Amino acid sequence: MSGLEFEQPIIELENEIQQLVQQARQAESTDDQLDNQIIELRRKCSDLTAEIYGNLTPWQTVQVSRHQDRPYTADYLKLAFDEFVELHGDKHFGDDRAMLSGFAKIDQFKVMVIGHQKGRTYKERAKCHFGCAHPEGYRKAMSKMRMAEKFNMPVICFIDTPGAYPGVGAEERGQAQVIAESMFQMSQLKTPIICVVIGEGGSGGALGIGVGDRIAVLQYAYYSVISPEGCAGILWKSHEHAPKAADALRFTSTHLQELGVIDDVLEEPLGGAHRDHHKMAARMKSYLLSTLADLTSQTTEELIDARYEKFRAMGVFLDDSQAEPMATT
Q1: Which of 59, 95, 187, 309 is least crowded, fewest Cβ atoms below 10 Å from its Cβ?
Q2: Residue 322 belongs to a domain
Q3: Do residues 259 and 267 touch, judged by C-beta distance below 8 A?
Q4: Do 155 and 203 lie in a common domain?
């Protein structure tokens, strides 16, 4: 597994442990001293990992959210769901591989899953436009959501994109309009919607499938109006200032929960989801099942009203006329 710069002390310890384990296997007899050394190094590695990941900067969180070994939508479909039948095309232009959609089954619930897909190899990433969906991707998502509504199936959206595709062709085919239409449709969809940010949640590309009854973010994911590089390019005219922009945007899971933008934070395995796909998938499945049980017990009217009030309540602030008057002497 490749590591990030701040993970190097952890990787060095893991390599040392691996060498000692191989040495222990090759030994003809049990060496208690060697076994104790391995146990001590593993404890030290665990403590170091907890310390490093407990004090990540916002920019380091962005790096973790983009880790090439991090589980993607397709990985969760394999590990957390029992069945998945992919549905293709938007019935207008084509099939966008950056947006996966299809019927799925998770325990007793039959659902519609829609999510961004980045691809693992370079060939897959190029085919998926590195997770940046075109207008046909969002039209495909809307079409499948309407199908889910027709069959009274909950919708689960996995968000993982740096933003919608910014090319000329995408703009010519109505990128901004289709994202707005998708958000409007989701606000009125007569079926439960769960949205989970599993990696990057950048700009309108994330919001296009981000209007739901429950919004969750993985511990080391981010959810923002713009990527840190985009913000740095606008404010400081250089992507070199991305770490400074990341600090200012307040887009980590802790910030988002404090601001009331999201409902839940899903804790990741020690060292991030990229270190243990199965454990992260198990936690994802547990969250989805409990949330589906809660949402499916509500009436359609209750769902839509609560969804409307939820997003109307975001961004509350006090202006000078609402502030308490200062005490005078």
Answers
A1: 309
A2: no
A3: no
A4: yes
Query: What range defines the domain where residue 42 resides?
Result: 5-55
> Would strands 214-218 and 222-224 be described as parallel, antiparallel, or unpaired?
unpaired
Nearest in space to 95 (alpha carbons), one of 62, 117, 79: 117
Note whether 274 and 69 are within 8 A (CB): yes
287 and 157 together in one domain: yes
Which amino acid is present at 315? G
Contact 116, 159 (CB under 8 A): yes
Number of domains present in the structure of the chain: 2
Using CA atoms, how far apart are residues 266 and 219, in angstroms rounded to an integer? Answer: 6
Check if the beta carbon of residue 74 is closer than 8 Å to that of residue 114. Answer: no
Instruction: Check whether residue 182 and residue 47 sit in a common domain.
Output: no
Question: Across the strands, what pairs with 193?
Answer: 155
Residue 105 lies in a domain: yes
In angstroms, how far is CA 38 from the centroid of its own chain?
35
Q: How far is CA 162 from the centre of its chain?
A: 11
Single out the residue of 212, 205, 210 nearest to residue 227, CA to CA.
205
Identify whether residues 49 and 187 lie together within a single domain: no
**Residue 130 contacts residue 162 (beta carbons within 8 Å):** yes
Strand 264-266 with 214-218, pairing? parallel
* Radius of gyration for the chain, computed over Cα atoms and rounded to the nearest angstrom: 22
Q: What is the pLDDT of residues 137-186, one digit of tens each?
A: 999 999 999 999 999 999 999 999 998 988 899 888 989 999 999 999 99
CA angle 82, 87, 92 (to 5 degrees): 165
What angle in degrees, to the nearest 10, is found between the helix axes of 135-150 and 175-188? 20
Instruction: Name the phi and psi angles at 205, rounded to 5.
Output: -60, -35
Q: Are residue 121 and residue 175 in the same domain, yes or no?
A: yes
Is 319 within the bounds of a domain?
no
pLDDT in tens, 55-109: 999 999 999 999 999 999 999 999 999 999 999 988 888 888 999 999 999 999 9
Look up the pTM and report it. 0.88
Question: 102 lies in a domain?
Answer: yes
